[in-house]
Amino acid sequence: MTKPESEWTWKELSVGNVVLEPGNASQYRTGDWKTLMPVLNKERCIHCGLCYIFCPDMAYAAADAEGYFIADLFYCKGCGICAKECPTGAITMVEEEK
Amino acid sequence: MGKRVGMEVSIAAAEAVKQANVDVISAYPITPQSYIVEHLSELVANGELDADFVPVESEHTALSVCVGSEAAGARSFTCTSSQGLSLMSEIVFIASGLRLPIVMILANRTLSSPLSIWNDHSDVMSIRDTGWIQYFVENGQEVYDHVFVSYRLAEDRDVLIPVIINMDGFILSHVIEPIEFIEQEKIDQFLPPYKPLHRLHPDQPVTMGAFALPSIFAEAKKAQEVALLSSMPKILDTWKAFGDLTGRYYHPIETYKAEDADTLLITMGSFGETASVAVDQMREENRSVGLVKIRLWRPFPFDDFRKAVAGVKNLVVIDRAVSLGGPGGPVAGEIKAALYGEEGRPSIYNFVAGISGRDVAPSDYIKMVDKAEIEIEEGKRDGYEIYGVRE
Q1: What value of ipTM does the predicted structure carry?
Q2: Which of A48, B115, B232, B304 is deepest in the core (most CB within 10 A)?
Q3: Are A13 and B210 a contacting pair at CB < 8 A?
Q4: Closest CA to B7 of B49, B46, B39, B55
Q5: Do B210 and A22 touch (CB under 8 A)?
């Protein structure tokens, strides 16, 4: 998408509103939905990857160079499943600051 | 000129679908539509029609199958009546929203309750505003002809809107009429193979039926409405091309002895033929009565209608469905809206007649005109009644 859909006019829509660009859901900022965001305490993290495995939105990427799993806040909806599943309590959900 | 054959209208309709060379048929049998799909299933089974006939457990699925097959680029057909249409109504909205050029024949039948298998327009009125182009035909030849007209129009790149052919159940579907068949070569020339604009194909993935946030939904509906309204020139072009091919020219609004009439009967569907007999009788008695027939119901041909009734004193609008708690029948409501802004607009008297297939004879039209003219003369501006009800 070249511009946010809230700027599209009716004349710019494809016939039948067919989405012609495959995979463009990746441009959808579901991160807007959250009120709480996950914060990782790296000292307690044991690199088990359960946060990555359980994340229902695949907001967690595979481990970074240092072996940590970090949520992409562009997609993270703040559901808190990662914090609930973390076996060492390394993830806490905190209010997002505007 | 093609061969003229005496044939039950349902069978002729199915033969037209065969000649239109459809790829997929999905339907669930329901009276009075059954003969159409039964005959199509025979044509597919005996190899006369190379198409997939998908038998389903409900009308909801029948139209869903057509949505899927049409989205994949296959010319698709379905057919239903009454409760069947109600059951598929959820998908009726989706087919037009996705701009899939499906063609459906609706053998109009009354909706329960009370349960009735006979004819009226209550079924289609429940999906009146779903964005399909809708014809009302008057006889078997028109059913046959409109199958080709509908596919050519629906699949036009400038249109891409599904079409419903409304034919009165039993009154048309179950009678035997002389039908003039069109040679296959002529049909192939009139109706080229379907070339979809977008289709589901793994080589070029697209998404159909994605959701829309409030930030874009209104734009999507505006686009759909503009597409439906601006299909009018193509509707006319398609009829013109069909007329040039066959000599049978159709128009959104058709008139019969309407010139200089003081009173005009307004009908839709098979009412038109009987009403024309009544008009002949009244004209013989030097009464100034004519007939206006609505062939195109959606998009409603407002300009043509206003032109057809310009200067007339009285309109007697015959509806074939009740609009419970509304402004009379649905056709009359439409016509009142069409004329609201007109200078010197006529008095409108509305009868609901022939519901659940009750016969409306020429003498009934004369009685309706009599009553309307008297009551309008006495000062009643917008009379309404269900005709012929025993008090």
Answers
A1: 0.89
A2: B304
A3: no
A4: B39
A5: no
Count the residues in chain A. Answer: 98
A78-A79-A82 Cα angle (round to 5)? 95
Domain formed by B253-386, architecture: 3-Layer(aba) Sandwich (3.40)
Question: Residue A2 above 80 pLDDT?
Answer: no
Q: Is B229 on the interface with A (CB under 8 A)?
A: no
Percentage of chain B lying above the pLDDT 70 cut:
100
Q: With 60 as the cut, is the pLDDT of residue B168 above it?
A: yes
Cβ neighbors of B286 (< 8 A, separation 6 or more) are none
Q: Which CATH architecture has domain A28-95?
A: 2-Layer Sandwich (3.30)
The whole-number pLDDT of residue A22 equals 85
Band the pLDDT of B152: cuts 50, 70, 90: very high
Q: Is there a common fold for B4-246 and B253-386?
A: yes
pLDDT single digits (tens) B180-213: 999 999 999 999 999 999 999 999 999 999 989 8
Q: How far is A35 from chain B (nearest CA, A)?
A: 20
Cβ <8 Å between A16 and B98? yes
Q: Is A3 on the interface with B (CB under 8 A)?
A: no
Domain boundaries, chain A: 28-95
| B4-246 is a CATH 3.30.360.10 domain | no
Question: Do B148 and B279 touch, CB atoms closer than 8 A?
Answer: no
pTM of the model: 0.93
Q: Do the Cβ atoms of B219 and A14 come within 8 Å?
A: no
A6 shares contact with chain B (CB less than 8 Å): yes
> Cα–Cα distance between B190 and B188 in angstroms, integer?
5
